[in-house]
Each structure stands twice: as structure tokens, then as C-alpha cells.
């Protein structure tokens, strides 16, 4: 751990990306205290005010709601959904991949056929189909994204386990009769965890974009709850007359996903033993 944190400290890009993400998470977490206005309170007398006018730093939307407050609250939803979805899909995908790779045979073939079927569908098409069936709500968008993304972890973990099963220390554990659960949890899982962490860090950004896409199309977070995707959908009608309605939520999505992907890429350089120089 000491070596790990020392590498983080020496990696300028990783340190910078982590600092920016921590700042965004802090602002989103403290939204009730730092937001200048209620994000759902409308005032038609102030509708479509441009940025830097009458105390509204990002301007106001078509209902006179403060755009800065809505962007801050929208960050809370995007970050929360991204993290929760990755935790749920990562857990079940890792569990399925671990069981499939460890036992092999018929269990492996059945589970991998399900994975193959899911991976054959484009992610956004599958997510939209599930969202249309379940209906638009906060809970359903989490279920939709989790069901649509678990297969990536299952495929990754299964491949890692198949390689580790042939190692001598795993064969020794089998020879002395250790229980399967102990071999999987104590000896295999710690050796594949770094790969799962790297994929999970990159998947957070993909889940944020997925949530924004589904909300943009009307199957995700519903108004008046502020969501970056629904804000883009509402603002697209006013792109020629009120550009700030789409620019600021769009910049929020780009900034957050950019630094998450940068963090994931640098974590891969540190955690992947194949890329280690020292």
C-alpha cells in the first residue's frame, strides 16, 4: 500500500485527476448548502436569463430556474448512479465470472452463453429496451444500467480465473483439499481484483453517459428532478436562443467523464503488473 500511494503521489496526471474528481464529488455532496437557489423553484419573470445576470451565474432556464443549482444537483444524480451501478454490476458480474471460470464444464457453457447473448446487443439499445419495459424512475434506471453492464465483468473475470487455475499454488490448494469458496475468495479473487478495479473505474464514466442518454430520450430521471440528460433534452429546443441551457450540462458530462477515464487509465498503469517498470 505504501508503494501504491507513493506511485499515486509521483504521477502528476493521476494526482490531478483525483483532485478534480474529489472537488466535483465534494461540490455535489454539499449541494444543499452551496447551491444558491432551489433547483426546482420556477420564476417565469426570470426565464431564459443569460449567464452573469441578476445573481444567476449560469443563467436561468425556460421556467426561470437557476441553472447553476440544477447543474450541481444534476452532478449528485450522475455520480450516485454511476457508483451504485458499478458496485451492483461489478459484484454480480465478478461472482458469475468467478463461478464460471472456476468450475468450467456445463456451468461455464451455460453462463457464457448468457454473456454472449447480452454482449451481442448494443449497450444503449439494450438499456433503452429495459428502461421502456420497467418505466422511468430513479430505481429503474439503476436496475436498467446494472442489468446492461454486468456481462463485461463476467467475461473479464472468467478469463482471468481460467489462467489462474493452472498456477501451481492453486493446484496445491486443490491437492490439500481446501474448500472451493476459500480458494476462490482467498487465493483467486485477490489476484484478479486489480483488473476489476481498473474496469470498474472506466465503467463509472460509461454509466454516467448511459444515464444521461436514457434521460435525454425520456426514459430516465423525470422532470423536475435535475438530471444532466434531461436538462440537455429540455434545452435542445432553445439552442439558437439560449445556448447556456445545453452548454453547461454538456460541459458537466464531458468534464466528469473525462477525468474519470483519465483516472482509470492511470490506475491501470499502476495496478497492471504487465505495465510495471519497477
Summary tags:
11 helices; MetI-like fold; single chain; 73% helix; mainly alpha; 278 residues
In short:
The protein has 278 residues and is mainly α. Helices cover 73% and strands 0% of the residues.
Structural notes for this entry:
The chain is an all-alpha fold. It has one domain (2-34, 58-275): MetI-like (MetI-like fold, Orthogonal Bundle). It is 73% helix and 0% strand. The protein has helices spanning 2-10, 12-29, 31-34, 67-103, 105-119, 123-134, 138-164, 168-175, 180-216, 228-235, 244-271.
The rounded Rg comes to: 22 Å
User: What is the typical, i.e. mean, pLDDT?
Assistant: 84
Distance between the termini: 15 Å
Q: What is the β-strand count? A: 0
CATH hierarchy class name: Mainly Alpha
| Beta-strand percent range | under 5%
Describe the secondary structure blueprint for this structure:
Blueprint lengths: L1 H9 L1 H18 L1 H4 L32 H37 L1 H15 L3 H12 L3 H27 L3 H8 L4 H37 L11 H8 L8 H28 L7
Helix pairs in contact: 2-4, 2-11, 4-5, 4-7, 4-9, 4-11, 5-7, 6-7, 7-9, 9-10, 9-11, 10-11
